[in-house]
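U., I forgot to send this yesterday:
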Amino acid sequence: MRHQSIKQVIIAGGGTAGWMTAAALAKLLNKDIKVSLVESDDIGTVGVGEATIPPIRTFHKLLGIDEKLFMKATQATFKLGISFEDWHKPQSDYIHSFGMTGKECWAGEFHHFWLHAKKMGNKDDFGDYCYELQAAKQGKFGISPHNPINYAFHMDASRYAAFLREFAENLGVKRFEGKIERVNKHADNGFIKSLLLDDGTEITGDFFIDCTGFKGLLIEQALHTGYEDWSHLLPCDSAVAVQTKGTPEIAPYTRSIAHQSGWQWQIPLQNRVGNGLVYCSRYLSDHDATQLLLNNLSSETLTEPKIIKFKTGRRRKGWNKNCLALGLASGFLEPLESTSIHLIMTGIIRFMRLFPFTGITQHAIDEYNKQLQSELESIRDFIVLHYKVTDRDDSEFWQHCKTMETPKSLAHKVALFKETGRVFLDDGDIFRVDSWVQVMLGQGIMPEQYHHVASLMNDQELSRFMQGIKQQIAQRLQQLPTHRAFIEQYCPVDT
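Result:
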């Protein structure tokens, strides 16, 4: 291990991952380290990740980013969850929302009371007891200290990178323009020594962060870290993306629409809509995928369709020697639950908590990698759940998904919920119990039992309890404007 102090951090690659990292390090560790970033204007970014989950707001607060300025700069809209259409079976839909459903007690979450009420004849959907979900369905949104709401954003990822670049450069981050020709290593221990650019500039550093996307120029090509392939669990390996004109109504949620060989996303921004189709090339050609997407758009295209190839999985180590991989360089999980930007953020925070100011230690590396593996595997399980637990068998793709291998951790979670109605979170779980319940119910799993405490209420008490929650939600919804009206008042984009 190298026990020299870390003073100079070099970030290879820009994009969302690179500039998020630069902004965070410069803002929070600026007194102790110097941060430089190398990127080339000639290398495009994947630029598909346009949806986020609520912890992004914590990241922005940590950096002191003004929400209104960020939203204007990135043409952002608000997101209350994801609408899953045709996933359980054709013509079915449900919303995985960011809200908390009902009220819980010491013995169990609200869904136990809902299950008991259902047995007693209550016909309400589980989602009827979630404020954020009902706001999403009604196309409403508002921020108020008296009426709190849990939300994330839809945004333009390339504009977000540009916004963070300006933020980071104002804090002293030095940017180098150029392509990396060679990664030089120390002869004695194989640590990265410097990056040689195509114009002959050599950039030396103590620590290197790889944000070079799928190719993993440092973490893989230089350090040969290895890749754990998850294609047997997540078979989709391609996506086609296209931008379309904005629509008059802006839904405060992402749409995820299942097709016969994959699924389509629809992400509404203020001035346009991000669209794409994730698919498995074994069952659908690039040409047919492109046609399928173009045939299912709600407005006129603004860009040419762009094909993206990927392999789901993870780098065997996110931190190897004096190199940390973030973003696509560290691995790839489908955009189904909008976790890509979140994983960049948690990687940055985890690294800063373990930052090797006085030198790199193996125990710090091992702890980072252990936590990363746990986090990735729990997200992987959550995404696999959508494919595996379904009544769809109307194509080769869905038949394959129904019969494919299930991770033991996921099989246990599903079986436990089916038998007892219980969900317990693993160490790396970023999704709450509510999320797991919403998706498992939405995908067609109905628990055989629920916690006995729910049945201790008499019928009258139970009815009063359930009605009280619904009434409170209805009252709060009345206070909300439409999503578009709130955006126009709060963070309109200059036209």
